Amino acid sequence: MTEITNFRGETEIATSESDTDAMVAALILRVGERVRKARERKGIPRRVLSEMSGVSPRYLAQLESGEGNISIGLLQRVASALDHRIEWLMGEDDPWVSDTVRVADLFRGATADVQSAVMHALNPGPVATLRAHRLCLVGLRGAGKSTLGTLAGQKLGIPFVELNREIEEQSGMPVDEVIALYGQEGYRQLEAQALGRVIATHESLILAVAGGIVADPETFATLLGHFHTIWIKTSPAEHMMRVREQGDERPMAGNPEAMEQLKSILTSREALYQQAEAQLDTSGLTVDQSITRLLTLIADHKFLD
Questions:
Q1: Looking at residues 66-90, what average pLDDT do you find?
Q2: pTM
């Protein structure tokens, strides 16, 4: 490295070509190690990550070994499949030894009482005041969020809102087109903005959100702080069956490992969904049974009192 003086008279460090090559090599190695670690922490086999991201197993193997010079576009696909922001994979600070991640891991493993105390300490106002009478149903697609949210809203006399519909209204296009045009990062930004608008305009409602909202820590923290949250869950087989009954054959079309992928996603997000205040398992239940249990759960937890 050589010291040079720029046009403002300031001293800068000029890096030689070999220095630049070394920095690039270090970046590639760092990204590969983080991809591997993120995949292993979520218990996702490399071939499943390949199916989820659209990046070949051979390319992923090269990437994880520090030998693959992956493009930004492909790396974004991998980051999205792992439910991570791309900057977490590229930053110089190790995301797995940062105070933020350590605190998050401790929070996930804490009891409900401890989590409640932490949220109370971190929130700028009383939790009950911040959450008002807002309910949010979280969980993967096919669990029954939209069906139960619509029925619960009708029976309780409060609005039911789907966050994706808010995003479509804001962007003027279907969510699939939003993701195709702006990518996952652009979609997440619109998702955060839509959530903010809902909080600002509704004191009482039932909200249903996309299953991947837990992938953005800031947006998910906002959600937990401003809504009473209920995890609507079911078995992987019923998730898949219900999505297909909705007329969407994409989960299974030409993808024999779709069920394994779904199980991996459920496993990787389970600790995040468990941060909800309550859970409702709709496995094997009729719609009438499920809505009865949901209304009982809401009353028992006094979410609307």
A1: 69
A2: 0.62
Which residue's structure tokens are 């959100």? Answer: 209
Q: What is the DSSP letter of 283?
A: T
Alpha helices in the chain (DSSP H): 17-42, 46-53, 57-64, 72-81, 86-90, 99-109, 112-122, 127-131, 145-156, 163-171, 175-201, 217-226, 236-245, 258-273, 287-300
Residues 143 and 253 in one domain: yes
Asked if 32 and 25 touch (Cβ cutoff 8 Å), the reply is no
Q: Do 79 and 161 sit in the same domain of this protein?
A: no
* pLDDT tens readout for residues 238-257: 878 877 776 555 444 445 57
Per-residue model confidence (pLDDT) at position 69: 67
| Residue recorded with tokens 């969980």 | 139
Domain that holds residue 11: 2-90
Domain C-terminal end among 68, 90, 112: 90
Residues 71 and 59: their CA atoms lie apart, in Å, by 11
Q: Is residue 229 a contact partner of residue 223, using CB atoms and an 8 Å limit?
A: yes
What does the pLDDT read at residue 72?
A: 64
CA 77 to the chain's CA centroid: 14
